[in-house]
Design brief:
globular; 24% strand; two-stranded antiparallel sheet; alpha+beta; single chain
Length: 161
Amino acid sequence: SFVDVKMGTRTWGPNASPEKVRSQASKAKLRTTGLLGFYIVSGKYRSGEEILHVGPDVGKELKDRAEVRRFFQGFLHTESLRKSAQKGLQSVRSWWQEQDRYAFYASSLFFSYDHCLESPTCKVKMIDFTHAEAITDKSEDLSGYRFGLDQLEMMFASLVQ
């Protein structure tokens, strides 16, 4: 089971062409990018005997907070999955807060676990560094990555309760 979560409120870097900015900004308005600081690119998990797929490529784009929350409730359907995902997200946040050399535009967090295991744990990894931009200070990071982390952490905290 996996989910690819594109992070940030901006998926274009400071050196993007005006055409790229317009294109990406119009896509962001149609997704949860601006609202949540992230959007679900794709995901797949088992629910009973059924395999559920989400994402725009399969015609099942999650368009608001409630749909995203329902997805994560199903994806992280056990306490151990919720807690391990939350721990992995906190680990990414700790690393991200301490590093001040790069801003990550259109980077993703990849959540995965093996649903065949009796007691799976969710792994969380940063992926997609194509648009990492060198910065000299955190204030130069305009990606909205922190906002996305904040929103994911709040959503996961509400699932753990």
